[in-house]
User: Fold these one by one.
Assistant:
Number 1:
Amino acid sequence: MENLDVMVLRHLRDWRQAGRRALLATVVRTWGSSPRPIGSIMALAEDGAVVGSVSGGCIEDDLIARHSLLGAQQMPQGAPRLVRYGVTADEAHRFGLPCGGTLELLLEFDPEPQALAALVAQLEAGRLVQRVVALADGQVRLQSADAPAALHIDAQQLVNTFGPEYRMLLIGAGQLAEYLATMASFSGFAVTLCDPRAEYRGSWQVSGVRVLTDMPDDAVRAFAPDSRSCVVALTHDPKLDDLALLEALETAAFYVGAIGSRRNAQARHARMREHFDQTEASLARLRGPIGIYIGSKTPPEIAVSVMAEILAVKNAVPLPRETEVATAKGLLAVPASHEVASA
């Protein structure tokens, strides 16, 4: 499943290039609890078609009623408008907002299709782009960005940074990789699988995943992980995993980890120190055993555990040490010899 922002912008581009009227709604401010974060976007076509979301559904319904032909309305024209929902308790209840929740949207009417096409093209090329909207007249300009940034709005303009898709490189095909690839895809990651072993690749069934047959360390170099990438080794084979992990640790990947038990993780560190001149400091970013501890033993449960940890790291959410697999199993006194190679 593609990145949600890119999907919204791609649909909006197509609608406008086809001559259909449409609006782009962006969450620009929130107070209290809010169902969608600042920067969230949705597109609404004149016939009531919606892509993306700014709430749990009720605000979308109101926008459809006010600005589409389904509500017997004509979409406005002109400069962008700010609209606020949930100012009163009655409004918050009517629009399904959490208690005390208020959000403000910027509505842009009939965004210029050429600018949308240029933005989508840059995102598809893996670039980080700032979309700057002049509030006086809705004029848009695009500028490159060096790092992700929070949405900014003032009296003159809105600046929303759109990044390329988050990416995941999986080393090793198999059942666990299939579950993890599926979860990553519906979480908005573009997934690449690398496995030089034909006997493992032959049963791969997850659509939308790019499959590579290179040696994993070569695949990591070609993948060129950046700060929106993660690399996960799943083969249990040091000949395949170790070199790939070492390559990944030299990049800006936000997450680098390998499946395995506590004993396997300790052995991996020892091999890398002995044979590859690594130190504990250079291996500090290498995660393993990966995942959060939920007592998982089956491939789908292990995948849930691993994906939860990846998302927490991506979202800069610190996890308590008690959720780490090694720490939790140590506290529970689970013998390493009895561990499955899991979370």
Number 2:
Amino acid sequence: MSTDVDKPERSQDDSATLLLGFLDYYRSTVTRKVRGLSEEELRSSRLPSGWSPLQLLKHLVYMERRWLVWGFLAEPLSDPLGDSDDDGHWQVRPEDSAAGLLAALHEGGDRTRAIVRRSTLTDVARVGGRFQDDDVQPPPTLAWTLCYVLQEYARHCGHLDIACELADGSTGE
């Protein structure tokens, strides 16, 4: 579980490699930031919205799984919304740990890479999991799905930046 993944080279012109490279970069950024926080800081919030860094980490694990496994592959998941309570607020259980969630985050990244290796970016998500025949919008392509997941990581890395700065004053990438 490396924490020192660089951004993809600027000369990279293969779209799948570029998207996967940025996803790896953001996963490593999340890992580095989470590892820099104490257990107390991981489980507490300094923000009016009330989420903790550990809740955000769990959300990222479930978000990627929802979009790629349950969504793109239409494989059943026992609890696709396991990161949220009945009101949609992020939640963690006492037994959830940073180490366990970071391992799941990187396992999810490995799964995403495997999906991309055996697919094309123009492949459309299967119907039957997250997406149904009667949905108003058609299922997304793999390219759209990867871009969506990437923007979730980027957005939440910014949120984690704020939480870390409030916790210990650290700033930056």
Number 3:
Amino acid sequence: MDLGIAGKWALVCGASKGLGFGCAQALSREGVNVVIVARGEPALKDAAQKLLADPGRPKDAQVLHVAADITTAEGRAAVFGARKDYDIVVTNAGGPPPGDFRDWDREAWIKAVDANMLTPIELIKATVDGMAARGFGRIVNITSSAVKSPIDILGLSNGARSGLTGFVAGVARTRKLASANVTINNLLPGAFDTDRLRGTMQGAVKKTGQTMDQVEAARLNTIPAHRFGTPAEFGAACAFLCSAHASYITGQNILTDGGAYPGTY
């Protein structure tokens, strides 16, 4: 299927690896020009080189990279200094650490909210009016399945991302944006084979005293698909939400979790 977005410009955050890279690669393969952002210059440069070397990328699709902390005003200024207008924005920031809520002080909460709620809002604010004026816009926020099914040790993430979810539910449905072919959706990953998942499981190892193999087996048993997801398939889901065909999907929270969420709604 031709997704109808070749030649568009996309900003993809946290794109040096994992789910962010999967999204950047899927968009690049559709002929989208991508600006990838992450804090670490070496890993980000490697990611850009992988995208440029990808045989599935049309040769005229550009790949730019900006090493910056997107959660800071300075980092966002660097990104918009590289390019002012974007047709597609994929927001993504590293999740806050797991732990016991009794151990988190105000600073920990502010940091989580800043990265996983306020930063996406700032990126939305900076781009949606331009998208509306041009008659096309796609914003996909990478959040977490924990928004629908909270995980006790991820309280910082549960709280901050739920705040973003509530904000998006309102702004995505404003007529000025929805009628201008600008959509805003949240993509909720479950257990994907990423460094983040490995870190969370390592935390469970320390907490329970079990081995990594035991923790991994227990996690797999909660997933009907009985496997972890891959960044490539997550990227494909993201690319579809960014496509011309997804113009009637907005304000939604779309789970990609192998069937792990047990609810009806």
